[in-house]
Amino acid sequence: MTDTYRNYAELAAHEVEGRDFRIVVKEGRSGIVIVAPHGGKIEAYTSDIATGIALEEHALYLFEGCSARGNGRLHVTSEHFDELRGRDIVARSSLAIGVHGASGDEEFVIVGGRNTQAKALMLAALAKFGATDVGPAHLQGSSHGNICNRARDAGVQLEISLGLRNKLSGADRRLMPDHATAHMREFTDRARQALTEYQRLAFKDTP
Ligand SMILES: [Zn+2]
């Protein structure tokens, strides 16, 4: 699917911040940033998942679609995503975690990105949720230009299927709300544990 806008400047020329989209930036204390460049109504529940992984510890950047309709037009692909507040907080971070929504009713998360150590830890941590590094090339987050790879030590990309996002968020009506909340908490806890382990290993490697 081709994006409506090639970059942020084009988007900002046609859309109004505060009406069609909004941007959330929160500093953290870990040097890691969690990024959802297609948040809000663009890729459903990716804002919630990113916020749950960040909590108060990691920095957070959300670019959220909040237009009355047709939020898909606000999707600027990760390689071209150049909004300055996002670029800035990622550039100041050691590691970035990109949170995205993939299509698919099955429950899976494609783990990509260029930091192989963090990626391996995330794959293991989210195995229970169908984590895999197998998926179509455009969901692998392998390009240097991808927003998740613009941190100092690059990053990890999570492409979370719609089926899994519905389960985590509680949108799946077959689940009781408290049950869904527990799924969300377990998913974000596991992702956070992978980041803690990554930091422990990175610290150990420092002479
Ligand atoms: Zn996305």
Please provide a written account of the structure.
- The protein starts with 7 loop residues before the first helix and ends with a helix.
- It has helices spanning 8-14, 46-54, 84-91, 116-125, 162-169, 177-205; strands spanning 21-26, 32-40, 59-65, 95-102, 109-112, 131-132, 155-161.
- The relative contact order is 0.17.
- Helices cover 34% and strands 21% of the residues.
- The chain is globular and about 50 Å long.
- The model has no long low-confidence stretch (mean pLDDT 94).
- By secondary structure, the protein is of the alpha/beta class.
- It has a seven-stranded mixed sheet with strand order 1-3-2-4-7-5-6, with helices on both faces.
- It has one domain: Aminopeptidase.
Strand order of the largest sheet: 1-3-2-4-7-5-6
CATH topology: the name is Aminopeptidase
Name of the CATH superfamily: Poly-gamma-glutamate hydrolase, zinc-binding motif
Overall shape: globular
Q: Per CATH, which architecture?
A: 3-Layer(aba) Sandwich
Tell me, what is the CATH class?
A: Alpha Beta
Radius of gyration: 16 Å
Strand content: 15-25%
* Helix-strand category: alpha/beta
Unreliable stretches:
none
Helix content: 25-40%
Give a short account of the largest sheet.
Answer: 7 strands, mixed
Per DSSP E runs of 2 or more residues, the count of β-strands stands at 7
The unique ligands bound to this protein are: zinc ion
The pLDDT mean sits at 94
What is the H/E order?
HEEHEHEEHEEHH
Number of DSSP helical runs: 6
What number of structural domains do the residues give? Answer: 1
